[in-house]
Amino acid sequence: MNQRPLRVLLVDDDPLVRTGLSMILSSTGDIQVVAEAGDGDEAVPKVTMHAPDVVLMDIRMRRMNGLTATAAVTALPNPPKVLVLTTYDLDEYVFDALGAGASGFLLKEGSPQEIIDAVRVVAAGEAMLSPRTTRKLIGHFVATRTSPRRHRARTGLSTLTEREREIVTAVARGGTNAEIGAALHLSEATVKTHITRIFAKLDATNRVQLTIFAYEAGLVAP
């Protein structure tokens, strides 16, 4: 039985960007662009109408930016995964979009294969994309965050056990569950159980948010 294609919604105010992304993704055979939106305020209605698996979300748009749109999309019941589209150096909002529940980000100048791979990885449930670059980006923005955010992170840190702190640190460094288990002499299932408990304690929904927390709490240095 053939598996149905991954359904993608493109949200970007540049029609040329949308056209390019659509051509790249549609060339694969296993990814289908089901709809496009020209601004963030169209994202929730398009998600409701077309039920995509993944949303590619631009950050800077005229009416509603990608931060607000990401928060609205991830608040929906059974939301799709959100990948933030960023120009990297210019998009200071990308950090907050990740904090709002985005599963990762894509650089607009990324290669076609990187874009295709990112959609597939996120659709499969992996939250971290290109961990080295993600950590660099998150570290850059965490270094400029205000002290109240750091205070809240350190308060959350106090709720974690020593083992949970080790696992959060390993997640922030890009470790997979299997790699974390091998390093800490735990089974992969045990690592998954710990991460589920950590999510509940920190009110987090994905590994990107754990990475942000680790930087803000001082477990990992920018």
Automatic annotation (TrEMBL):
A Pfam cross-reference name: Response_reg
Membrane-crossing residue ranges in chain numbering: none
Residue ranges occupied by any Response regulatory domain in the UniProt entry: 7-123
Domain HTH luxR-type positions: 153-218
CDD domains, A to Z: LuxR_C_like, REC_NarL-like
Keywords for the protein's UniProt record, in alphabetical order: DNA-binding, Phosphoprotein, Transcription, Transcription regulation
Signal peptide bounds: none
Name assigned to this protein: DNA-binding NarL/FixJ family response regulator
Biological source species: Amycolatopsis roodepoortensis
Lineage: Bacteria, Bacillati, Actinomycetota, Actinomycetes, Pseudonocardiales
